[in-house]
Specification:
6 helices, 38% helix, alpha+beta, single chain, 2 domains, 4 strands, 4-stranded antiparallel sheet, Alpha-Beta Plaits, 19% strand, Arc Repressor Mutant, subunit A
Length: 154
């Protein structure tokens, strides 16, 4: 599927607002038949429209109240090796390869400043990592969203 029609966009928008909505609830909300919603959902899933269905878990109640972003500068030819090693650090919850002056942006959670210092040290100890810059996250101001894109005329 290369594009979405208005029904697909409405369905994706409804799911963005209520990811746990049942097929019946989505059908009622959108004024569609249950079979239509089921067929569209199957087609959207097959096309790769959905990201992971893993639930997002707040790290604070499990003892990780701080979040930071570690900008990693590395030897380009060792990217695969560095990513493999970074993925073995349990406090790493996400990483993105970037273009520009930073090669890898790593999102970590930690218990306190000492824990963050330890995690940064683990990243720095990985072969191929040249240096890091760490920024403490002060708060999520705009959560991940696609609603505004789905509401935009196609």
């Amino acid at each position: 599927m290369t594009g979405y029609d208005d029904v697909d966009r409405a369905l994706l928008g409804a799911l963005g607002g209520d990811p746990r909505a049942t097929v019946v609830a989505l059908a009622d909300r959108l004024g569609l038949s249950r079979n239509t919603v089921q067929a569209r959902m199957a087609r959207l899933e097959t096309s790769g429209a959905f990201l992971s269905f893993e639930r997002s878990i707040d790290p604070v109640p499990i003892g990780y109240p701080l979040e930071a972003f570690v900008s990693v500068h590395l030897q380009q030819k060792r990217l695969t090796e560095v990513v493999a090693a970074v993925s073995q650090i349990p406090e790493v919850i996400q990483a993105h390869g970037l273009s520009g002056s930073v090669d890898l942006l790593v999102r970590v959670v930690c218990r306190d400043a000492h824990d963050l210092f330890r995690i940064d040290g683990e990243i720095l100890a990985i072969g191929g990592v040249e240096r890091t810059e760490t920024s403490l996250a002060m708060g999520e101001l705009i959560p991940y969203r696609l609603g505004p894109l789905l509401e935009r005329p196609s």
